[in-house]
From TrEMBL:
Species the sequence originates in: Rhodovastum atsumiense
Keywords: DNA-binding, Repressor, Transcription, Transcription regulation
InterPro entries according to UniProt: Carb_Metab_HTH_regulators, DeoR-like_C, DeoR_HTH, NagB/RpiA_transferase-like, Tscrpt_reg_HTH_DeoR_CS, WH-like_DNA-bd_sf, WH_DNA-bd_sf
Protein's UniProt name: DeoR/GlpR transcriptional regulator
Pfam families (UniProt xref): DeoRC, HTH_DeoR
GO molecular function, one term: DNA binding
Positions of the HTH deoR-type domain: 7-62
Amino acid sequence: MNQPLSPSERRREIVNLVMARKSISLEDLVAQLGVSRMTIHRDLDLLEERGLLRKERGGATAESSLLFESNFHYRLQNENAEKRALARAARALVEPGSVIMVDDSTTTLLLAEELETIEFVTVITNSLPVCELLRGRSNVQLILTGGSYNDTLQAFYGLICEQSLGKLRADWAFLSASSVIGLSLYHQDQEVVRMKRALMAAAERKALLLTHSKFKARALNHFGELSEFDRVFIDARLDEPTRQKLRQADIAFELV
């Protein structure tokens, strides 16, 4: 007979199930884990408080909402081919000796992977995965902003992060967004918004990397306009009506 899971093991299994299925019902969790509905409710409340999933009527989901940004590891699994194409297109902007800033998105993490062939580059970031990827690379001078660490987003934020960025300058800043509504960019978290604005202010030029799904997503906090970016890369699955709207608004963008 199998031993019952400890509370921490059970919650870890809940997160794994939600990430694997995107959404799961309360009844399925009860059946899978063999505990009461009340226990699952308490687990979901705690996991939502930690930012690992979003509790919804009748179950839980890993999908983002106006207020909730999905877990970093969940986002890393999605649209990998599209993000990889965007990263390769953006990589062409980085010249040997450049100083670049990279935000905390999963798309720009893939850009960091593309830097291996550049002779020398300085990378400034608030992203822990970018730091872990690039540390020890002989061709990279790595500068981490510091700040308050957010485990759900795998990055650093807050006053220290923003002040660090305010004292630095870069040739390029590479960013993504949670949502594009009209011609405006949005994110769920105000601290992330402030970090992105600090990145944008510190760079001579700015590049934006967007998957087509961002034009269907929604988030609460405005942080910028498409027109503020020198280069905008969007994956080729962007629908034709949205392409036409961007062209009519004179937004220069490149499909990759």
